[in-house]
Specification:
The complex is a heterotrimer of chains A (246), B (285) and C (328).
Chain A: E1 3-12, E2 15-25, E3 30-34, H1 41-49, E4 56-61, E5 64-65, H2 71-77, E6 79-81, H3 94-102, H4 109-122, H5 138-151, E7 156-160, H6 168-183, E8 187-191, H7 195-201, E9 204-209, E10 212-217, H8 219-224, H9 226-234
Parallel strand pairs in A: 3-8, 3-9, 6-7, 7-8
Antiparallel strand pairs in A: 1-2, 1-4, 4-5, 9-10
Chain B: H1 2-31, H2 38-55, H3 60-86, H4 91-113, E1 128-131, E2 134-137, H5 138-160, H6 162-172, H7 174-179, H8 184-209, H9 216-231, H10 236-257, H11 261-276
Antiparallel strand pairs in B: 1-2
Helix pairs in contact in B: 1-5, 1-8, 1-9, 1-10, 2-3, 2-4, 2-8, 2-9, 3-8, 5-6, 5-8, 9-10, 9-11, 10-11
Chain C: H1 3-19, H2 26-52, H3 61-78, H4 82-104, H5 109-128, E1 139-140, H6 157-179, H7 181-191, H8 193-198, H9 203-229, E2 231-232, H10 234-238, H11 240-253, H12 260-279, H13 283-301, H14 305-327
Antiparallel strand pairs in C: 1-2
The chains are: A alpha/beta (246), B mainly alpha (285), C mainly alpha (328).
Chain lengths: 246, 285, 328
């Protein structure tokens, strides 16, 4: 197992955002994480990436216990992540943004630059490489976040709604990008609301509800699981959203 | 007996610290913003009191109200002219804005009022009460009690009134408050007015018994920082307790170590606190 | 900046004392030139932490003060050449930086600024009551030099060139930093700590690097000040206005840019000299009214400083010209 989260829980006061989640991800997988808003997906991501310390439980990455390790150490070990709300470095150029990621494995400027340009090419940001990040729209920012992480050569990438807010054609391009990333041997965990994306990309889906993993299986199995339908219906969302055909 | 005197005097001054610090903590709690010019608001309150006494005459109620009103208006104007815009800007802009404002106000006061120390006329309020062997200066007693009452009033305003719950709603979640029909801009402007007014009255209250100059603001700003840190950011009751504590510590260290060390002890305490409990002594872990 | 731009700037700075030598106010202008360079050194040093890494320290006076006090201290107590105290001052500053850095870097934004003010004020009050350090009166350097090593010159010109050499070194270090991983990481920390961490930036360690570099050079600025004026007291060496001067100089020109501090110094120092001359002794108060006003205006309208303004206008002009060409 590349990643195993054992009984990970995160409480904020009396609120249990994540209540003992067991999640295991094998190298080379694409795992989808779905669930209603507030189900604890982002908090779970934050626990894995080291942004918040879990209240209890254990996180192993490639056999190493990283439960107490800070985010930067986990990045060094090979966990990369994007943020739900993009956190691009606004005043820096796109190239410089990506170089910050590239410096992790390439301390020398020249090599970092080469790596950054390579990734920029792959993510389709070449045209804008010299512009400041603030000039990008939402799709551009999401791409930039992916590029920045990719430049750091992660083994596991956590994508937190990296495709939300994109138009159907942008979603299609983004799906191609995720496939290309996967083809490089990078394991992916994707939080996504657009079911079609999950159905297209994920080999396995985990469903979060109220901090628990309530179902797992292939995308089709999960969508027909009564517990999953209940979780969505209970919150008045109907079946998992099928908005926007990609 | 002298020790008791020191304690009482320290607590009375501490109540005034609590008053102006509660303004600083209110702004922090609402906007995650520290007003570096808060000490200058206190200083301006003192000069407004002086001007009111000279021009209008009357007692502490008159110049206290004048200071409150004058500073309230200043706070609102500063919010709309400066703070609203810099809140959207980078951190550097946020910090520089009130920092520049502090310099501007302090040295403008130098320019207008001269750097010399002045006092309010003694006729405003004077006299002493002898109580169980302690000498209570009437101005200090009045200032301490008035400040305590006003801080309590502010706490009640925030927790018991519709206006207060609207303020807290904005502090809690700006967007949600907007959806509820609250105009966050107005509430934040009001908070700035309230904070400045608390500093203004506190200044006026201290002006009765202490000489002052345009330079005093810096010390008050730092005192307020210490009180707010000690009391936990955003908590008015915390500021109240911490204000009393800081007044007491200052009084005792001046008594035991000598007057120059009163600030050294307080700042030292502050630095130690940052080291050990950055979330504040009374704040939650 | 282009290579030619650098050559022109360097030539202009090197030629300045000589170029004004013929004028009526030669001594005055040369002295002002030295003060501009000194202010630029202080602001550039602050800029490493405050501008690049985005940690707005308002307590840099403690490093400036350490640099100013130690050289005069070794002279006053042991008649050693003040120059000997310069590295000791740097060492003292680095020591203070290590002690102060640990607790304060846990704090973010406003809170960090506030903490640095408190620490610096604590240092100022303590020094002001410490007889060994001259208490409120301060310390004096040698009135007349016993030899070249005392670095006491009647003319400002030797100081000018010493300051210029230090500034050149500092700018070279900063330029090198800007191009290296350190510079990128500091910039990223300033732009967003959480994102920086997620990309593997060890935030606390890099903040400490920035603080050490910044403190060391700030200390050097303090030493140069003490060598030139031959005097330091708690207000001139450790007062909050010393920190304010560094911040406003950097912010006016452009915090987080290589040449912003120099630009800021070239504007503010003559401005300060002018207000002092026009308004006499009381002018110093007015200087800070203007300073305060300038800071407020920068914060409100152009947080990137004048260089940013210039870049934006240049970009807009370029875009306009592009459109015209397309239209034609």
């Amino acid at each position: 197992m590349l990643l195993s989260a054992e009984k990970v829980a995160k409480h904020f006061g009396s609120f249990r955002a994540v209540a003992g989640a067991d999640v295991a991800v094998a190298a080379g997988e694409i795992v989808g994480l779905i669930g209603p808003n507030g189900a604890g997906k982002s908090t779970f991501f934050n626990c894995i990436a080291g942004d918040v310390a879990p209240t209890s439980g254990r996180i192993l990455f490639d056999g190493v216990d990283v439960t107490g390790a800070p985010a930067e150490t986990r990045a060094r070990l090979g966990i990369g992540r994007t943020f739900q709300v993009p956190t691009t470095f606004e005043d820096m150029t796109i190239l410089d943004n990506v170089m910050v990621g590239a410096f992790l494995r390439h301390p020398r400027r020249g090599e970092a630059r080469d790596r950054a340009l390579e990734v920029i090419e792959m993510t389709g940001l070449k045209e804008q490489a010299g512009q400041r990040a603030r000039s990008l729209g939402t799709p551009g920012r999401k791409r930039l976040e992916i590029a920045r992480v990719l430049a750091a050569r992660p083994r596991l990438m956590l994508l937190d709604e990296a495709l939300a807010g994109l138009t159907p054609s942008e979603v299609r391009r983004a799906i191609e990008l995720v496939r290309a990333i996967h083809a490089q041997g990078i394991t992916l965990v994707i939080v996504e609301h657009i079911m079609e994306v999950i159905l297209t990309l994920a080999e396995r889906v985990l469903v979060f509800n109220q901090g628990h993993v309530i179902a797992s299986g292939t995308p089709r199995q999960v969508v027909d699981d009564p517990a999953v339908i209940e979780a969505y219906l209970g919150r008045g969302h109907g079946r998992p959203r099928r908005a926007r055909t990609p | 007996m002298i020790l008791l005197q020191v304690i009482v005097d320290g607590l009375l001054l501490g109540a005034v610290y609590a008053l102006f610090s509660s303004g600083l903590t209110l702004i922090w709690g609402m906007m995650n913003f520290i007003n570096f010019a808060h000490g200058e608001f206190v200083m301006l309150g003192m000069y407004v009191a002086l001007l009111a006494v000279t021009w209008i005459g009357g007692g502490p109620v008159v110049f206290g109200l004048a200071a409150a009103l004058g500073l309230f208006l200043l706070g609102v104007v500063i919010y709309f002219a400066l703070i609203r815009a810099v809140m959207r800007g980078p951190m550097l802009a946020q910090i520089l804005s009130t920092f520049g404002l502090a310099l501007l106000l302090r040295y403008a006061a130098f320019w207008v009022f001269s750097p010399n120390f002045v006092t309010l006329p003694r006729s405003v309020l004077s006299g002493t009460l002898r109580l169980d062997g302690i000498l209570l200066s009437v101005p200090r007693l009045a200032a301490g009690l008035a400040a305590a009452a006003l801080t309590l009033g502010m706490h009640l305003l925030l927790t018991r009134t519709a206006l207060g719950s609207r303020l807290l709603a904005v502090a809690e979640d700006r967007d949600a408050a907007t959806l509820m029909g609250i105009r966050p801009d107005r509430m934040q402007a009001f908070a700035w007015g309230l904070a400045a007014a608390s500093a203004g009255i506190a200044g006026a209250l201290m002006a009765i018994s202490f000489p002052f100059s345009p330079a005093v603001g810096e010390t008050f700003a730092l005192t307020a920082f210490v009180v707010v840190t000690l009391g936990g950011f955003g908590s008015v009751p915390g500021a109240m307790l911490a204000g009393l504590l800081v007044g007491l510590i200052q009084g005792l260290s001046a008594y035991w170590l000598g007057p120059v060390y009163k600030d050294v002890v307080v700042y030292g305490l502050f630095v130690a606190l940052l080291w050990l409990r950055p979330q504040g002594l009374l704040g939650a872990a | 900046m282009t290579r030619r731009g650098w050559v022109v700037l360097a030539a202009a700075l090197l030629a300045y004392p000589w170029a004004v030598a013929g004028s009526d106010g030669a001594a005055f202008l040369q002295d002002m030139g030295a003060l501009v360079l000194l202010a630029a050194i202080g602001a550039s040093a602050w800029n490493i932490l405050g501008g690049y890494a985005g940690q707005i320290s308002v307590g840099h006076a403690m490093f400036f003060g350490a640099g100013a006090y130690v050289p005069l201290l070794v002279y006053q107590h042991w008649q050693a050449p003040p120059l000997l105290g310069v590295p000791l001052g740097v060492a003292a500053s680095l020591g203070i930086a290590l002690i102060v850095g640990h607790p304060t870097f846990r704090l973010a934004g406003h809170y960090f600024s506030m903490a640095t003010i408190a620490v610096a004020e604590l240092v100022r009050i303590m020094v002001g009551n410490w007889d060994f350090l001259g208490a409120a009166i301060g310390l004096q350097g040698p009135a007349t030099g016993r030899g070249w090593y005392d670095l006491t010159f009647r003319s400002a010109v030797p100081y000018y060139y010493i300051f210029l050499a230090v500034l050149a070194l500092l700018l070279a270090v900063t330029a090198q930093m800007q191009r290296s991983r350190l510079g990128y990481y500091l910039h990223a920390i300033g732009a967003g700590e959480r994102a920086a961490r997620s990309l593997g930036v060890p935030v606390r360690r890099y903040k400490l690097y920035a603080l050490l570099l910044s403190a060391g050079f700030t200390s050097l600025a303090g030493s140069l000040y003490a060598l030139k004026t031959g005097f330091v007291d708690p207000d001139s060496g450790l007062g909050i206005l010393v920190s304010v001067q560094m911040i406003i100089t950097a912010a006016l020109g452009g915090a987080g840019t290589l040449l912003g501090p120099l630009l800021g110094a070239a504007i503010l120092v003559p401005l300060q000299t002018a207000t002092n001359t026009w308004f006499g002794g009381g002018g110093s108060g007015l200087t800070y009214v203007i300073y305060g006003g300038v800071i407020v205006l920068i914060a409100r309208f152009e947080p990137g400083g004048l260089l940013e303004l210039w870049h934006r206008r240049a970009a807009a002009r370029l875009a306009r010209r592009g459109r015209v060409r397309h239209a034609a």
